[in-house]
Amino acid sequence: MSELFASPGALPMLLLVPLLWLLLRRSDANRERRLAGILGLRMRSLAGDLAKGQRRKRRRLTVIALLLALIALLQPQWGTRQSAVEQRGVDIMICLDVSRSMLARDIVPDRLRRAQREIRALAERTRGDRLALIAFAGDARLIVPLTKDIDSFCEMVDLTDPLSVRRGGTDLAAALETAIDALGTATGDHEVVLLITDGEDHAQLGLAAAEKCAQIGITVHCLGLGSVRGSKITLADERGESFLRSRSGEEVISSMDAPSLRKIAAATGGDFVDALSRNDPLVQLYEQRILPMARKAFADEQLRERRQHYQWPLLVAFLLWMLEFCLTDRRTSARRRP
Prior knowledge:
Layout: H1 16-39, H2 43-47, H3 49-73, E1 77-80, E2 91-97, H4 111-125, E3 130-136, E4 140-147, H5 150-159, H6 172-183, E5 191-197, H7 206-216, E6 219-224, E7 231-232, E8 234-237, E9 240-243, E10 253-254, H8 258-267, E11 272-274, H9 281-303, E12 306-308, H10 311-326, H11 329-336
Parallel strand pairs: 2-3, 2-5, 5-6, 6-11
Antiparallel strand pairs: 1-12, 3-4, 7-10, 8-9
Helix pairs in contact: 1-3, 3-10, 4-5, 4-9, 6-7, 7-8
């Protein structure tokens, strides 16, 4: 029954039809008794069988019209159609690594500024999509919730730096879990996570978090920044520039961990892209993987819409009410008047 009607919860209202029929029958019986008490034996000749027949027809038309109107209210439906569903766009969670290793200059001008440039290019390419920004290092922080305000989003991207989070290091799991929380009740139909990092996962929990994303249905694409050979990490302050050193005093060399990022992407059905392998890597990833996924989801959603036919019983009910209005006792009596 729920498949036949869009509003099956209103089915009890059909009980109004027999209730109305009983009330009309009782009203007519009471009317005849009152007339019999007033007119006596003259009631049959004055009231007439024709008027009584007309009244019965009106009652039937009224009850049938009510039944059809209630059926229209239940919104009968059968068949399917491809309706013009407004596309909501894609929800893109961008997780940007802002750890100090992203200051390495094996990518010009450095990894972080190159990542910011790629994110801006992606934001300018999107149309109707929502973007969100998560900055992460040793922990993660939602900087920009999902928004269509591309200008404000790009301004916040440019302002993001290692001071955007409190803890140093690199925790990929914290970034992915923050993305899951920000997406809420996501199903993965039109949500995606872009993990932009050099891949140095100090906590080594990134793959487990990626598997959690896969269970929900969220795809994670990874953009790797840095070279395999690695680079020193340049720090700049008022005294000039220097290289980051470990506690033992040795200069830190940071390289991109491409194998780890490939595993994270593969665990969710996503892609790993080396930023040095192509021009505008995020834009290409968006056009080749993200847009086709969203279009398929909206096409499937259109096919599930049922075709409604409430207008036909409603039209017939209206015509019956008009016909009932024309069948009045007064017009019948007028025809009988000499």
